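Handout, page 2. Input:
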Amino acid sequence: MNKLKQLFAGGAALTFMSSVAHAEYGLNMPVGVTETSRQVYDLHMLILWVCVAIGVVVFGAMIYSMIYHRKSRGYVAAQFHESMTAELVWTIIPFIILIVMAIPATKVLVDMHDATEADMTVKITGYQWKWQYEYIGEDVSFFSKLDAKSNEARMVGSDIDPATVENYLLNVDHPLVIPAGKKIRFLLTSADVIHSWWIPDFGWKKDAIPGFINEAWTVVDEPGVYRGQCAELCGRDHGFMPIVVEVKSEADYAAWLAAQKGAAATAKLAAIEDLDPRELKQKGKKVYRANCVACHQKKGEGIPGVFPAITGGAIATGDINNHINMVMNGKTGTAMAGFKDQLSDVELAAVITYQRNSLGNKVGDAVQPAAIAALR
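Output:
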């Protein structure tokens, strides 16, 4: 009976794996959607066929010699040593081939690194484990991280079938939005460890390194949604750091940009007003689920020995000023990051209030956005 149960359990596991695992059966690299990606693809195909031609010539000569010049047919191996002719042939011909391949490769590389005459600039900063996008000169900035549905489904014990989540682990809460047909210059850096910003359809990836700024650019001609991931092993949640770029028409992008500026202005006004504690708790629950649940867990129990519990924790039930400082500035030498630059005044006030009055805690106090603004 136990063996039957094991067989059924194994079959269920295989069925689950087959429903979420998608193997890539493509035999070639994708063409992509940018001029750079098309140049890279053309260069790849050129080098591939050059290598194929070399392989055909070399192995063809070897196979021909083994078949028609074998000892059983009476052939005797030639005896020669230090042939200048042979050494010149196998030195000069490969040198010429390398030069022929280097010319188009150099042109593509030069074009890939030419970020001049850009229409707009976006600064990208990598964090463990999210991205910050700053639109230079537009006063628009936001963080982009794994969307709530994927985040909840990937939790151990969530009982959510990942196959039911659209774009599982490849979706974010706030995509990077850029206009179609415009040259976008990217400035990439990191606030903690090395990350790598990679959209396969763009034809390149670029490392985001702490204390250093890398440069890249792209032009996407057609509106659409393009997905990628961090391509550098950057820590525990490296696999949950997707990238989504939404390319809009010029008119739609202008409308989106205006909406972002309006939302920022509204958020500044909201930070002045006192909010009802119940409203703060409601907002705080959403902020907690989006930013804290990966480490401190859905019910605030934490991960023993790794991340402390919120429920009954000394910070969440102790002095409120220590709690505010911890959430805003983090703690050096631990995985606790500061959220001062990642969350708004309202979001910070809300999540602190939620932690102190939910998840099994009943401290009874609240933090107002104005108090957070005063501490910045």
